[in-house]
Amino acid sequence: MKIALAQINQTVGDFQKNTEKICLYIERARNQNADLVVFPELAVTGYPPKDFLDIPAFIDENLKALGAIADRVYGISAIVGFVDRNKQRHGKLVHNTAAFIQDRRIASVHHKSLLPTYDVFDECRYFEPAHTISPVRFMNSLLGISICEDIWNDEEFWPRPLYELDPIENLIAQGANVIINISSSPFAVEKHDRIRLRMLIHDATKYKVPFIYVNQVGGNDDLVFDGNSVVIDARGRLIAQAKTFEEDLVVVDLENPEVQIQPRSYSPVETVHMALLAGLRDYVKKCGFRKVVIGLSGGIDSAVTAALAVESLGNTNVVGVLMPSQFSSQGSIDDAVALSQNLGITYKIIPIKDVFETYQKILQTEFEGMPFDITEENLQARIRGNIIMALSNKYGYLVLTTGNKSELAVGYCTLYGDMSGGLALISDVPKTMVYGLARYINREREIIPQNSIAKPPSAELKPNQSDQDSLPPYAILDGILKAYVEEARGIDEIIRMGFDEKVVREVIRKVNRNEYKRRQAAPGIKVTSKAFGSGRRMPIAHNFLC
Amino acid sequence: MKIALAQINQTVGDFQKNTEKICLYIERARNQNADLVVFPELAVTGYPPKDFLDIPAFIDENLKALGAIADRVYGISAIVGFVDRNKQRHGKLVHNTAAFIQDRRIASVHHKSLLPTYDVFDECRYFEPAHTISPVRFMNSLLGISICEDIWNDEEFWPRPLYELDPIENLIAQGANVIINISSSPFAVEKHDRIRLRMLIHDATKYKVPFIYVNQVGGNDDLVFDGNSVVIDARGRLIAQAKTFEEDLVVVDLENPEVQIQPRSYSPVETVHMALLAGLRDYVKKCGFRKVVIGLSGGIDSAVTAALAVESLGNTNVVGVLMPSQFSSQGSIDDAVALSQNLGITYKIIPIKDVFETYQKILQTEFEGMPFDITEENLQARIRGNIIMALSNKYGYLVLTTGNKSELAVGYCTLYGDMSGGLALISDVPKTMVYGLARYINREREIIPQNSIAKPPSAELKPNQSDQDSLPPYAILDGILKAYVEEARGIDEIIRMGFDEKVVREVIRKVNRNEYKRRQAAPGIKVTSKAFGSGRRMPIAHNFLC
């Protein structure tokens, strides 16, 4: 049996283009003499469709599209992810389903059994789980068709399974001798190598059957999908792997596979770099933009953001804006100019001093006799936010904000100031990882000025300011944040890890108190196991300090 | 049996104060010779605790608090909502549970069976459902203890039950002769009278047993809880009802109830008014603020917001700011001043003309030869946003934004401009309902100047602007929005309701395209059946136009 893995990049709700692409890949797979072509989870609608699933017209369009796709399935069979209606008298209105299509008709449907409802996933919100599952005969095989989470509950692999049911065990018990899994499994750093691939190899070895894993690729809002679709043979050997962060069609003859492959291995910083490029490219394109504008401070965060944007979109689609104040050092201006020249992007210099002074004048009576404080610092950031939004409004640029995860965690950023923009590209990248990205970007030649990397970070909103005036060193801050935000550890446990108690309490207090800022932040690209945003839902009004 | 309904207002994660309040109500109930005192769902933690439930230390604190509460239960029994650990080897780590406490010990625990996972609810994200349930002997009764959603699945009452299981039917089948339900059931206009109370009366009548329903009260972020705890007797008669939007302790002798009562009935506008007052009061208090600042344009939205704030917080805790531009009419300024005087609040006048001109000067080279457009309109709104945030930063005021739901739906508002602030008080109130609130606020004397109500709405961001230049009349807009947003109807269905096709398509296109603005909006107080925010989760990047 020759199986084609169609690793495609869909847009939520773009039924026409999604259908066209699926039909194109069916044709390409048929041209390569595949017997079966397999598409990712919810390939028809794009993933995640979120609350569009509550709109009956959206479900109708998806069913119509599936019908049009089925019509093109001849001389090959296909497995296509779509949204099916729940025909029972109770429960959620729809299922997350795989259609098994043969000779222009839907031969069987296979609903998802396990519905992830944690982190960024809300599937119990929408879907009714499968009530029964069964394998399906195809050529000489009995295919066990499963959907994403269905393979993530092996009681030997996981220390504590999340679900009572194991659909794979169930399918195998019914005689399935090939497991097919269609997925939309988002990227997180090290997830593919360390978890997903290990798990698939474990399961294939355990059950002595091949696993065909087809994942979606590309970005949808905050989520980016790495692809990395694979075929594992019945001896647990990796015999095919699709590209990372690119569309791909991989055809494998299960009876006569090529020899075991060793896929190209990427370092964590390389995969994060690829994830950010893919996430940015798709957000810009799927939102209908072409160009982006970025405020350049001369610091490392905006430099990394601009370098990523140029690599993702091309230097003619990136505009830089320098908005110096009286507190900006000449060095910072020089660094931002050097960066722009290294990247070959258009840059503009718009000083904010006059506007800042005019604000101070109109607020003079009001603030008479009160000292310069966070008010004036924020005001400068907000003037910059206004200018960059004016450029966005006038020219139709998408604004990229440049804040990193460490700042966002402790609220070291200004609402309606540097937080103004449509996409917060590196907002899930901890500061220590920003340095790694900068070094990686400079691996062949200096793109980001060395000075932007080497100098002590500063917001430059008052004289002689340094980030370390108000925050612990980033290596320590990021260690505490990883323990608290990503690993949900309690204060006592974090202190036992060796961090200073006073610092730990102060950091966690800041994280908990700054939820209101994050609630109004632009979406970012999730690259860690726990990003702020839809995967971390915290109350604003509360009184829990750990 | 004398039962006390303890309708209390808790703060998420404030274990000390929550415990103190529960102990106080235990004592008050004991002093009134109650045999049993019943508290709302998750009374120990506050509701909704959201992702604090993922932090083990949060669960520990809640268990410690429950222990301290149990210690105070003597001479009375108590039912208290808390978070229990799931002792099984798989599944979610915790249950949403009611503790039945007698003589200082937890005699039994009762887990929630049905976990709402739709709209603002995410309970499958956190909780493992009950695997078995059973009633508990108390005095001469067999109590069926249930939690919120558990009573919302009667197959006779609902056209299509959401769950296969009906825990109430199950408890009754096991002999329960009193049903107790502890809830945290958020307010939506007309929900109590039209749904909740009707359902409870239906169920009591059907099963011929009394229903004791105890609901939380008060605001937590976007959700506000109306209380309205009730006792329905075995003949389906309402024999007790606690206050609306206030804490209360109601003691009922089930064997000798008072005669049937007729609770005070409120009109929809009255309940929305109460909900907004309670939501604002608690958001301000639970976030640690005292005073609020509001930009006053002379229009109806900011007038209603200011009037609600004064009623909720007192006139000494509300500051108004007028920020006129060259496009502001003298009438608008006069109306805002008159409003401030009617409300007895401090107001400041800070004209934005100088700052606006300075921005135009520094952007002159950049925008040379390009016409005045949305850029300059937004810039004015953003200058106002900056000024009001400067006042917030300098004095520690919470900023209330003043946009209504109709504007937010179609994006008729400026990110980082009039959307700047900590709470968007009326962002779930459609414009047509804003008029109703204004008339209600003016029911005894003119508080909101008649002119603010009567004049055609305008953003006053360019000469002779009117909302109806870019939007259909609000009565039509709100009709379409209700059908699309609240009722999730498709375009064809909405057109069949009698709306013009072109208008419907344009409105829905605007709603779908402006998700990016709402993603960065301040939280608002949910008063309708479907608010923007956590209850409506839409992708930003998509291509679905209905």
Write the layout of secondary structure elements.
Two copies of one chain form a homodimer.
Chain A: E1 2-7, H1 15-31, E2 36-38, H2 56-70, E3 77-85, E4 94-102, E5 105-111, H3 123-126, E6 136-138, E7 141-147, H4 167-173, E8 178-183, H5 191-207, E9 211-215, E10 217-220, E11 223-226, E12 230-232, E13 238-241, E14 248-253, H6 268-286, E15 292-295, H7 300-313, E16 318-322, H8 330-343, E17 346-349, H9 353-362, H10 364-367, H11 374-395, E18 398-401, H12 405-410, E19 423-424, H13 431-441, H14 450-454, H15 467-470, H16 474-486, H17 491-496, H18 501-513, H19 515-519
Parallel strand pairs in A: 1-2, 2-3, 7-8, 8-9, 15-16, 15-18, 16-17, 18-19
Antiparallel strand pairs in A: 1-14, 3-4, 4-5, 6-7, 9-12, 10-11, 12-13
Note the beta-strand portion of chain A: 15-25%
Classify the secondary structure makeup of chain A into a structural class. Answer: alpha/beta
Radius of gyration of chain A: 25 Å
Please count the beta strands of chain A (DSSP E, at least 2 residues each). 19
Q: At CATH's second level, what is the architecture of the largest domain in chain A? A: 4-Layer Sandwich
What kind of sheet is the major sheet of chain A?
A: 6 strands, mixed
User: Globular, elongated, flat, extended or rod-shaped: what is the shape of chain A?
Assistant: elongated
Q: Uncertain runs of chain A with pLDDT below 50, 5 residues or more?
A: none
- Quick one: CATH class of the largest domain in chain A? Alpha Beta
Overall structural domain count of chain A: 2
Count interface residues per chain for the largest interface. A-B, 98 and 97 residues
CATH superfamily of the largest domain in chain A: Carbon-nitrogen hydrolase
Please report the number of helical segments of chain A: 19
Looking across the biggest beta sheet of chain A, what order are the strands in? 5-4-3-2-1-14
Task: Give the overall pLDDT of chain A as a whole number.
Answer: 96
Distance between the termini of chain A: 56 Å
Oligomer: homodimer
Helix content of chain A: 25-40%
The CATH topology of the largest domain in chain A turns out to be Nitrilase/N-carbamoyl-D-aminoacid amidohydrolase
